[in-house]
Design goal:
This protein has about 525 residues and is of the alpha+beta class. It is about 50% helix and about 10% strand. The protein folds into 3 domains: about 210 residues, no CATH class; about 120 residues, no CATH class; about 160 residues, 2-Layer Sandwich (Gyrase A, domain 2), CATH 3.30.1360.170.
């Protein structure tokens, strides 16, 4: 059994080394960031366009958000210090009646439970040196969140601090007999990742002599990232509304991962500094009951699976997407919704008329509804949401991360492991590095198998980007159009472009009339 994550000595972020800022830099930062020395913070008081640029720039750099703010967005530090002094002399925001606002929230949000009151509160959050797995816990919030994470496709993730690679060292494992095996296995994979950068880059130069060096570099990061692991640390910035952040904190605190629990706690503490009214429900009985409910639900799912699925031999599943279910009446329902808005008739009446239309009429209705879309950003209408599809997808953890960020409404995944094997990718095989990479990934898998017997939750940090994993999603045809057209654009990763293309092909087979909406899919 894993030791209790609530013990004081079991702090996941004990490894975090705060960035050093000068006294002058701290004075500049303090009005705009809820802290200058923790991995989780809230940014406040920044102009909207600067906020957007800051979060986006943060996703492209190994530097912290606060460092980027100082070095790239503060053009005159002396003026910034003078502004800070002026703010202090004026007494901050005392002219605003924040007490009245707080009483309003206490009455209506906390007392009456009017959730929508929190929705208009905009928050900018930053998270630094959290694991890939930690970032997924944040990005699992599907509504009210706009995150941008540092890309493993466009940047190097083999940095070291004090001679150590930057990956999660969970106190649960690091205080166990497996600590040495854990570090040795991940270090071996990251050593190879670093060693392959130049040889793979040179192989791409020879294969594509006319490509610019920047493109070659990105292709190299993209190909070699199969050796990164779910524990590799990353940065993430996000816009989120108050209603969404409350539920996100509940989910994080209910998580089985110590890292998620601590992120949730730190978020609560930082939000309390800038919007104290928003955390009142989290800290009360309402919040405690919500967290306990979510945690118990996770335990019940495991217990139910143990009871009803034990003893069944798993079948081998082929890689890629498989359409497992769709609605035979989906196209008729779409056409009915197209027509319904034009007359004062019931849904049942319109659907009955549609069922009697000829194929020619149905095609004509759909074509006129779709119209002449100028590009993929001009999305088809909501009527296409009536046609539902369910997919089972076997894909690498690397590509799953990219699809998961689309926040499809009904995604399902489970604990990461190596049960479906690994896939090093076509280019590494072609360049002659496939065997050595696969050997290293298999060593990781062997170490994971040993550690996961006692610590299956924390062992997920050892799962490599090249590991195959199962993913279930149910989406509507409108979502499918959006994802397929976005993810098959030229320049996208060939792995998830192939998955998106195959999903579109299978969706078109299920709903041939609606397939006419897939205008901007690259079918290459």
């Amino acid at each position: 059994m894993e030791r209790s994550p609530h013990s004081p000595e079991f702090k996941f972020f004990n490894y975090y080394i705060p960035e050093k800022f000068t006294l002058e830099e701290e004075k500049i930062l303090e009005p705009f960031f809820s802290n200058v020395n923790r991995p989780v913070f809230v940014a406040t008081g920044l102009p909207e366009e600067l906020t957007g640029a800051l979060i986006a720039r943060h996703s492209q750099s190994e530097e912290s958000m606060r460092r980027i703010f100082l070095d790239e967005f503060v053009k005159d530090r002396k003026m910034a210090l003078l502004w800070r002094e002026l703010q202090n002399s004026l007494g901050g925001r005392e002219f605003l009646d924040l007490g009245r606002a707080n009483r309003f929230f206490k009455k209506h949000f906390v007392g009456f439970g009017h959730d929508s009151i929190a929705a208009p509160i905009p928050l900018v959050i930053g998270l630094e040196r959290i694991s890939q797995l930690g970032a997924k816990g944040i990005e699992d919030t599907r509504i009210g969140l706009s995150p941008i994470e540092r890309s493993t496709r466009y940047g190097f993730f083999g940095e070291k601090i004090d001679g150590k690679y930057l990956y999660a060292r969970s106190p649960v494992i690091m205080s166990s007999p497996y600590a040495e095996l854990y570090e040795k296995s991940i270090d071996g994979a990251l050593d190879l990742y670093a060693e392959l950068q130049e040889p793979v880059r040179e192989a791409y130069r020879k294969k594509f002599p006319h490509l610019k060096e920047d493109k070659i570099k990105r292709m190299t990061f993209d190909t070699t990232r199969v050796l990164l692991v779910a524990g590799n640390l990353t940065n993430l910035g996000a816009m989120i509304n108050g209603q969404a952040v409350e539920y996100m904190i509940f989910k994080l605190k209910a998580s089985e991962l110590v890292e998620h629990q601590e992120i949730g706690q730190m978020l609560e503490e930082e939000i309390a500094k800038v919007t104290p009214a928003l955390v009142q429900r989290i800290r009360g009985d309402f919040g405690q009951r919500a967290i306990e409910y979510l945690a118990n639900r996770q335990k019940e799912q495991e217990a139910l699976a143990e009871k009803y699925l034990t003893g069944i031999e798993p079948k081998k599943i082929k890689k890629g997407p498989i359409l497992t279910d769709w609605d035979p009446q989906g196209e008729n329902k779409v056409i009915a919704k197209i027509l319904w808005q034009g007359r004062n008739l019931s849904d049942h009446q319109v659907l009955k008329v549609v069922s009697q239309l000829s194929l020619e009429d149905k095609v004509r209705i759909i074509d006129r509804y779709l119209g002449q879309r100028p590009d993929r950003r001009s999305k088809p209408g909501r009527a296409l949401e009536e046609a539902i599809l369910s997919f089972q997808i076997i894909l690498r953890f690397a590509e799953w991360r990219d699809l998961q960020r689309n926040r499809i409404l009904t995604p399902f995944w489970r604990r990461l492991d190596y049960s479906l094997g690994v896939d090093v990718g076509r280019d590494l095989q072609e360049f002659g590095f496939g065997e050595v990479v696969e050997e290293r990934l298999n060593q990781l898998a062997e170490a994971h198998a040993i550690i996961s017997k006692d610590y299956p939750v924390e062992a997920q940090y050892m799962v490599a980007f090249g590991t195959l994993m199962p993913y279930l999603i149910t989406l509507n045809f409108r979502e499918l159009v959006y994802i397929a057209e976005l993810r098959t654009e030229l320049g996208n990763h060939p792995g998830y472009a192939k998955i998106a293309r195959e999903m579109a092909e299978q969706g078109k087979d299920a709903y041939p009339l609606l397939g006419r909406a897939l205008k901007f899919v690259h079918w290459r």
